[in-house]
Amino acid sequence: MTVAPKREDYDVVVIGAGPAGLAAAATSAEAGLSTLLLDENVGPGGQVFRAISSTPVTDRNQLGADYWVGADLVRSLRASSAEVIHRATVWSLDRNLDIAVSVGGASAFVKAKRMILATGALERPFPIPGWTLPGVMTAGAAQTMLKSSALVPDGRTVIAGQGPLLWLLAAQILRLGGRIDRILDTTERGNYFAALPHALAFVTSPYFAKGLSMMREVKAKVQVVSGITELSASGDGQLASVSYVAGGKRETIPADLLLLHQGVVPNVNLAMSAGIEHRWDDLQLCWSPVLDASGNSSVAGIAIAGDGAGIGGANAAVVRGRIAARAAVEALVPAAAAKLAPMATLRSELAKAERGRVFLDTLFRPSPQFRIPTGDTIVCRCEEVTAKDVLDSVAIGATGPNQLKAYRRTGMGPCQGRLCGLTVTELMAQARNKTPQEIGYYRLRAPVKPITLAELAAVPKSGADVKAVVRG
Ligand SMILES: Cc1cc2nc3c(=O)[nH]c(=O)nc-3n(C[C@H](O)[C@H](O)[C@H](O)COP(=O)(O)OP(=O)(O)OC[C@H]3O[C@@H](n4cnc5c(N)ncnc54)[C@H](O)[C@@H]3O)c2cc1C
């Protein structure tokens, strides 16, 4: 049964039912504002709390206590008056706060007085030779299968990369009885020294003890090779082996499954397509929206909360959601804000939740060779464009990602640059001896998610729309 929004306009529309969106929607509904929460997944939870209402993994120790925090957030949301629609993919958002959402293959249009984008993070591309082979996937995809279906690897499995999620997934796979043959840790040795000045904030944050015990749990059961400087996957039409270099020595091991992960980055597509200003963040090596302390963006009426505002993790996402919602309530119905937690309290909670982040960003800074590929390594998976193709285009005059679209169709496939955008920016910056900020990013437009032409054609048209097309 297709559920469409009950109204055409809302005080607050929240996109994304991860920790930030769940908290934001519950907060604005609690203040008595008409609130709509839209999310493309079958149920609430976003990335971190994926399948929280339906997971078959019921032994709480297996996914870990942090996961089950999501159940409380969902409970608070369901207790509120917020209207929630799942399987709802938002494919357009403009400066007038008009939203187009596809639910069950039919598009609906709603208008908001205030928007909160809580569209979260995506895994950073990891373009190594052979990363497009069947049998190679991201750690996040494997975790999605684990959380939603309790599926774990049972063949020869290698996990390669770095970052908190890699260790969390490895621990979760082992707790569910899955198989991991080797972990290849690509954390650069120099990063440990670079991160030292930020260590105090980290060791006094909740991440330290949790991270340490998780790494110990995994290292007790799996061979971990650190200081990986080269990595590639090989096989004839299917993954057969993984080759790596550590300490100057190359080794090749057979593998049926290779899980890659080198951190997460803000999911910028909807925000950028709405015209929100983004800047290159050289600490997190990604594009981050330019926001004020309450998450308000360069487009009036649109705020961004959660990892879409810059990577901060699940705890920070919840507080950022509450701050953005409180700011919306203060703007729309100031008197109703009295019912909510004071902004000063929320800000100190956010500072606590973000404690240790700089240490993590510095320690888990992915190495250039794993971000900026060479030769025949595929950069754009949708259009099968290689690093050499990109450099050849630069050699004949392509100056940035948008010109490269014309030369090579990079970023024009189903993923709309989600899997190649960062790589293209950094590759062109390196080739042209410019900064990523100077090179820029793809110009993103609606639809930001694929919809069928039939659905577009079925969109209700006003007289003005028809006239515009006919006249045009
Ligand atoms: C694959 C993956 C797995 C992760 N697993 C963990 C974990 O186990 N533990 C942990 O601490 N952190 C994990 N993280 C980090 C995670 O980013 C944060 O911890 C946290 O989930 C961020 O919360 P958020 O509310 O900002 O966004 P998310 O939780 O990412 O939620 C954003 C939601 O918005 C939806 N959405 C995006 N665009 C649209 C659209 N156009 N229309 C409709 N819906 C849309 C997404 O599908 C998603 O449901 C993971 C990140 C990724 C990418």
From TrEMBL:
Keyword Ribonucleoprotein included in the entry's annotation: no
Keyword tRNA-binding: no
Ranges of residues in domain FAD/NAD(P)-binding: 10-318
Domain spans labelled SoxA A3: 378-458
Keyword vocabulary terms for this entry: Oxidoreductase
MF annotations from Gene Ontology: oxidoreductase activity
Protein name as annotated: FAD/NAD(P)-binding oxidoreductase
Species the sequence originates in: Bradyrhizobium betae
Taxonomic placement: Bacteria, Pseudomonadati, Pseudomonadota, Alphaproteobacteria, Hyphomicrobiales
